[in-house]
Design goal:
The protein is built from 11 helices and 10 strands. It has 299 residues and is of the alpha/beta class. The radius of gyration is 24 Å and the shape is globular.
């Protein structure tokens, strides 16, 4: 199957040709498949937000190219189609809501696509249901919590039927409850077939994705499944990235001599692994006790 997004030798320079020139991305090569759930992590200045903006042609390459569903972002005549395929949700939900009612906000994109009213109404209903906000359709956005606002913003993007949803630090300004709401929403959407690219500095959020890409100094430093990336504790430390809490605890326990498996990402995984080790250590003692009781009975 053709990949949804291909990044080929992408370099991006801000203020090119001036004394203030800054190279944010350096010869990045990357392929993202349809239905992927990808976290892109990195510290400040790593280039992750710059990369995100290339996925729907908000930025154009200084060198190299980005291909979205066969369309080159350098082709200005294809930009409208590219942005219908790749929708973006940004950090501040208040900057993304434009209408006075939730349902009107979600309808804004489809209206600009020139869709008939009955199709717009159907999409508003479907997408608000998909993000768990249907019961709030007649509410004013400014009365919602941060997490609810982001879910409305996601619904507004989904109403345009994109193939890919890019979240650029979309949980940064939310409280823990709002973060959970957004993360559960995008996981559910991905399970329904939407490609999700989650740009974040919160490493614990990357645990729940299927692939983690770590950027440093505008280059890809690590790329693989979460279990593979998070077992490379020293490499992450050199990139000034902090292990998520559970993998970090598992790493310390292994370092202290506990023979834990290498793929521990969540508290449930850790509990299962500790229970397995406990059973292993108790089993010989039980066997030894039973043998002793049998011998005593024989006397």
């Amino acid at each position: 199957m053709t990949p949804l997004i291909e990044v080929r030798n992408l370099t991006h320079v801000y203020n090119a040709g001036t004394p203030e020139a800054v190279t944010a991305l350096r010869e990045v090569n990357l392929t993202i498949g349809r239905g992927d759930f990808v976290a892109i992590v990195g510290g400040n200045g790593s280039g992750k937000s710059t990369l995100a903006k290339h996925f729907n042609a908000l930025l154009l390459p200084s060198e190299g190219e980005v291909i979205v569903d066969g369309l080159n972002t350098r082709d200005r005549s294809a930009v409208w189609e590219i942005r219908q395929r790749v929708g973006m949700v940004f950090q501040n939900p208040d900057n993304q809501l434009v209408a006075t009612l939730v349902e009107e906000d979600v309808a804004f994109g489809p209206e600009n696509l020139g869709l008939p009213p009955d199709e717009i109404a159907r999409r508003v209903q479907d997408t608000l249901a998909a993000v768990g906000m249907l019961e709030h359709r007649r509410r004013e956005p400014h009365l919602l919590s941060g997490g609810q606002k982001q879910r409305v913003a996601i619904a507004g993007i989904l109403a345009m039927r994109p193939q890919c949803l890019v979240l650029d630090e979309a949980t940064t300004m939310l409280d823990p409850q709002g973060q959970r709401e957004v993360l559960e929403t995008i996981a559910r959407l991905n399970a329904q077939g939407v490609t999700v690219i989650h740009i974040t500095h919160a490493m614990e959020e990357a645990v729940h994705c299927r692939r983690v890409i770590a950027l440093a100094d505008g280059r890809i430093a690590l790329d693989g499944p979460p279990a593979e990336v998070f077992r490379r504790a020293e490499d992450l430390k050199s990139l000034r990235l902090v292990l998520p809490p559970v993998p970090a605890l598992a790493h310390r326990l292994r370092r202290d001599g506990l023979p834990l498996g290498q793929s521990i990402l969540t508290i449930d995984h850790l509990e299962d692994e500790l229970a397995r080790l406990a059973r292993q250590r108790l089993a010989p003692r039980s066997g030894s006790g039973e043998a002793s009781e049998t011998a005593d009975g024989a006397h």
